[in-house]
């Protein structure tokens, strides 16, 4: 039925005109629910919508009804009238509404019958003007509504399918999923979420607050990292949950480790994931324990250890390394390059071998570092010796060990000294003299620079040694060694080459004195009286002198020059001892002749 608000005054005038000359004084229409939608007497103040049980009953039953009512002038109705309720049907026989006709009952029965005869025509007119036309619009609206209902059902079905797909996807997640609303009440969670928290799963019902679920877990001892500090843990967890920013880590009672990631939703809720990172944590802890064991082992090494990455930056080093390089230990920083560390050590004077040639020494070290492996032996500023062993790693870095070989080096030096030094006098022996003289020759500034050789033989040593004993003789030889060190030019090679024979060699270019004058000075030092163990003794010395230079080439070797000094010494002895003789070529010829005569 049409809404009464849509009944126009024109439609009402047509109905009233149809009733002129009849006993019908009022017509009303009701919808299927018995609500009034039309009244022929309705004025400006008339409002539709009142429900009439009689009309509703007729609409329900589809049968007409009639009753006699009492009226009066005060109601604007006849004293007696008849109310007739007639159902109105559509083309399919369905009730559209109910028409009520009020007929004056003061007339005769024949008159009422005539009036009723007009009813059908009047109903048709009213149905068309008041009901049929509006109902057509209603039917169109109803058809449109059905289309909308179908669309809504389609959308609802799609939404339901999407909801089911979403829930299935959430259930299929390998991680725990949970959603809380803006009031922090549980909306939904998947089975994996409940699986992570079996002791508090019973509390995970829609509408239960996050705090209530947490408290259920706390009461069951579900959070290992909350034991003994439950309230503090709860307060901290609620703060992190409200912030919903960075990850949160939980250690559960069953040993599992969870990473919690929470974010705020647009409507103020919280969505969260619980990721089982137990395997990752255990793997990391195993790796950390293994690394710590490695660090402990490296620190326990009796050698210094360090590791550089492929860009030659310091990665790690042990305490022994820091102790070995005390001067630059404060400069050892993770991330510093090898070159920076070595330069700092050079600036601190840590490498005595590099003194005066720092840049060249550094270039040599860095060049060695380009090799797959290399070794170095060097001395530190505190006197210790270090053996450096370095090997390149598979990833391009370098691992190195620093072994303190000070004791070994000292033993080696002692052995070398014993092999090249006369233990009685502390002077070089013949082997040591040969090595030292080679260094002396290598250091000559030019081909014209000369080396002077002084071959010295003590006079009267044997009688003194026989008279006072070998111990006294040894003391005398030791004293001679001291005299030679005092009298010889600076930097000279001094050696004991026989029982009472000594050799002095030096670069003649270093002193302005003629070698013969130097030899005479030494002879004078040895001829002075000596006081040893209460004994007053006096010896002399015979000296032979020869010189040699690079300019002589292959014509005269160093060995030849030393032999020339020996020949000159023999000449000094034949001249009465305590003399200095400078070699002349004729002396060699005479020596050769003497040797031939001796063979005959």
TrEMBL record:
Q: Which CDD domains match?
A: GGDEF, PAS
Outline the extent of the GGDEF domain: 449-585
Q: Which residues form the PAS domain?
A: 290-330
Residue ranges crossing the lipid bilayer per the database entry: 119-139
**Which InterPro entries does the record cross-reference, listed alphabetically?**
Biofilm_reg_signaling, GGDEF_dom, Nucleotide_cyclase, PAS, PAS-like_dom_sf, Rev_trsase/Diguanyl_cyclase
Q: What is this protein called?
A: Cyclic diguanylate phosphodiesterase domain protein
Q: Which SUPFAM superfamilies match?
A: Nucleotide cyclase (SSF55073), PYP-like sensor domain (PAS domain) (SSF55785)
Q: Which organism is it from?
A: Polymorphum gilvum (strain LMG 25793 / CGMCC 1.9160 / SL003B-26A1)
Task: Offer one Pfam family short name for this entry.
Answer: GGDEF
Alphabetic keyword roster: Membrane, Transmembrane, Transmembrane helix
What top-level branch of life does the organism fall under?
A: Bacteria
């Amino acid at each position: 039925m049409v809404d009464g608000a849509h009944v126009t005054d024109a439609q009402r005038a047509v109905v009233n005109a149809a009733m002129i000359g009849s006993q019908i004084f009022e017509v009303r229409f009701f919808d299927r629910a018995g609500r009034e939608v039309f009244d022929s007497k309705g004025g400006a103040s008339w409002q539709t919508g009142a429900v009439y049980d009689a009309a509703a009953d007729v609409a329900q039953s589809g049968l007409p009804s009639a009753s006699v009512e009492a009226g009066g002038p005060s109601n604007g109705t006849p004293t007696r009238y008849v109310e007739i309720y007639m159902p109105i049907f559509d083309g399919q026989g369905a009730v559209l509404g109910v028409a009520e006709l009020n007929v004056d009952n003061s007339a005769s029965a024949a008159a009422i019958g005539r009036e009723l005869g007009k009813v059908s025509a009047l109903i048709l007119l009213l149905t068309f003007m008041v009901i049929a036309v509006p109902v057509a619009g209603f039917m169109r609206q109803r058809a449109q509504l059905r289309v909308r209902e179908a669309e809504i059902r389609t959308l609802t079905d799609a939404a339901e399918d999407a909801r089911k797909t979403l829930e299935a996807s959430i259930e299929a997640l390998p991680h725990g999923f949970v959603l809380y609303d803006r009031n922090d009440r549980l909306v939904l969670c998947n089975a994996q979420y409940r699986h992570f928290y079996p002791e508090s799963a019973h509390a995970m019902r829609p509408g239960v607050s996050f705090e209530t679920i947490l408290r259920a877990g706390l009461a069951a001892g579900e959070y290992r990292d909350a034991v003994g500090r439950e309230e503090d843990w709860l307060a901290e967890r609620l703060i992190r949950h409200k912030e919903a920013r960075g990850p949160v880590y939980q250690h559960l009672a069953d040993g599992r480790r969870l990473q919690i990631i929470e974010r705020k939703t647009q409507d103020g809720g919280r969505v969260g994931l619980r990721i089982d990172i137990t395997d990752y944590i255990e793997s990391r802890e195993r790796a950390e324990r293994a690394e710590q064991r490695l660090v402990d082992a490296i620190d326990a090494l009796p050698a210094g250890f360090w590791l550089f990455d492929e860009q030659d930056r310091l990665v790690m080093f042990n305490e022994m390394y820091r102790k070995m390089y005390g001067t630059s230990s404060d400069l050892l920083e993770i991330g510093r390059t090898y070159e920076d560390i070595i330069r700092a050590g050079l600036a601190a004077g840590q490498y005595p071998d590099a003194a005066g040639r720092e840049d060249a020494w550094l270039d040599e070290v860095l060049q060695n570092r380009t090799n797959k492996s290399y070794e170095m032996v060097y001395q530190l500023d505190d006197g210790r010796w270090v053996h450096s062993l370095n090997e390149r790693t598979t990833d391009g870095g370098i691992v190195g060990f620093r072994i303190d070989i000070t004791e070994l080096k000292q033993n080696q030096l002692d052995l070398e000294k014993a092999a090249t030094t006369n233990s009685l006098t502390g002077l070089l022996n013949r082997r040591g003299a040969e090595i030292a003289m080679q260094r002396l020759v290598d250091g000559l500034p030019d081909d014209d620079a000369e080396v002077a050789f002084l071959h010295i033989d003590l006079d009267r040593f044997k009688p003194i040694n026989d008279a006072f004993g070998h111990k006294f003789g040894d003391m005398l030889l030791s004293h001679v060694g001291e005299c030679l060190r005092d009298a010889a030019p600076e930097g000279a090679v001094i050696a004991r080459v026989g029982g009472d024979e000594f050799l002095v060699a030096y670069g003649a270019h270093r002193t302005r004195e003629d070698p013969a004058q130097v030899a005479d000075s030494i002879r004078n030092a040895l001829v002075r009286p000596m006081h040893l163990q209460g004994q007053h003794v006096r010896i002399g010395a015979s000296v032979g002198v020869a010189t040699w230079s690079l300019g002589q080439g292959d014509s005269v070797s160093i060995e030849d020059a030393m032999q020339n000094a020996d020949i000159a010494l023999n000449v000094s002895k034949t001249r009465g001892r305590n003399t200095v003789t400078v070699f002349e070529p004729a002396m060699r010829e005479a020596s050769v002749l003497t040797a031939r005569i001796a063979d005959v």
